[in-house]
Amino acid sequence: MTSITAGESKREVAQPRQQSQAVNVPQVDVAAPNRREFLYYIWGASMVLLLGQATAGLIWFALPRFKEGTFGGVFNFPPERVPLLGSNPVSEPSGRFWVSNTDAGLVSLYGVCTHLGCLPRWEEGRSRFECPCHGSKFELNGDYIEGPAPRNLDRFRMTVTFEDGTTAEMNDSGDPIPLEGRRVTNIAIDTGSLIRGQANA
Ligand code: FES
User: Fold this and answer.
1) What's the gap in Å between 111 CA and the centre of ligand 1?
2) Is CB count within 10 Å lower at the N or C end of the chain?
3) pLDDT tens, 81-128?
4) Is the beta carbon of 148 within 6 A of some atom in ligand 1?
């Protein structure tokens, strides 16, 4: 027969109480954020959203958005407005340019003086552009003649489409586009693409 000591009897009595305590401990989900962490998450998300909006706004304002037919964009210059060879240039005030038909071909000139930004006028009697501010003068093709202007008139890049479907684009030097008697169906003048006039020799 097994005898029970006083110490063994105490352990047996204590065991049921330990089991009972384990059952009653509330379950805590350690992965769930507490109130402070939750506020941090909200704050962090708000900051990310704010920075995203600020960046998008910056890009939106930084990128040029010019519509066709407004200064800074492309103008489709009507072929019927092209001046006769060697005659007075044609002005397009909304695009701030002149179109000249020279012996070397067609050219689009930025109508702003290369000295201090006044607007040269075409003087029909003298067959040249003259600036009203300080007297700079330019030829039909925009080449400098005299006065304080440091260079020829600037040019806008242009693309000419001919009746046979071929096109000719102005090169990086801004050389006139020869027409050579071909019929023109479209002239696209990009007022957002300036070709700087050659400096005076
Ligand atoms: S602004 Fe044209 S000559 Fe000075």
Assistant:
1) 12
2) N
3) 999 999 999 999 999 999 999 999 999 999 999 999 999 999 999 999
4) yes
129-170 pLDDT, tens digit per residue, is: 999 999 999 999 999 999 999 999 999 999 999 999 999 999
Residue 201 included in any domain: no
Domain assignment present for 13: no
Residue 134 CA, ligand 1 centroid: distance in Å: 5
Please report whether residue 23 resides in a domain.
no
pTM score, whole prediction: 0.70
Total number of domains constituting the chain? 1
Q: For ligand 1, what atom is nearest to the CA of residue 113?
A: 2
125 backbone φψ class: left, alpha, beta (φ>0; ψ -120 to 50): alpha
Return the CATH number at 95.
Answer: 2.102.10.10
Closest residue by Cα to atom 1, ligand 1, is: 116
Q: What is the CA radius of gyration of the chain?
A: 40
Element (H, E) at 189: strand 184-195
